[in-house]
Amino acid sequence: MASVLNTVPSIKLSNIGTCRVRNNRPALTPFSVSFTRRRLTIRATETDTNEAVKSQAPDKAPASNGSNFNQLLGIKGAAQETNKWKIRLQLTKPVTWPPLVWGVVCGAAASGNFHWNFEDVAKSIVCMLMSGPFLTGYTQTINDWYDREIDAINEPYRPIPSGAISENEVITQIWVLLLGGLALAGLLDVWAGHDFPTVFYLAVGGSLLSYIYSAPPLKLKQNGWIGNFALGASYISLPWWAGQALFGTLTPDIIVLTLLYSIAGLGIAIVNDFKSVEGDRALGLQSLPVAFGMETAKWICVGAIDITQISVAGYLLGAGKPYYALALLALIIPQVFFQFKYFLKDPVKYDVKYQASAQPFLILGLLVTALATSH
Question: Which pLDDT score, from 0 to 100, does residue 6 have?
Answer without folding.
Answer: 42
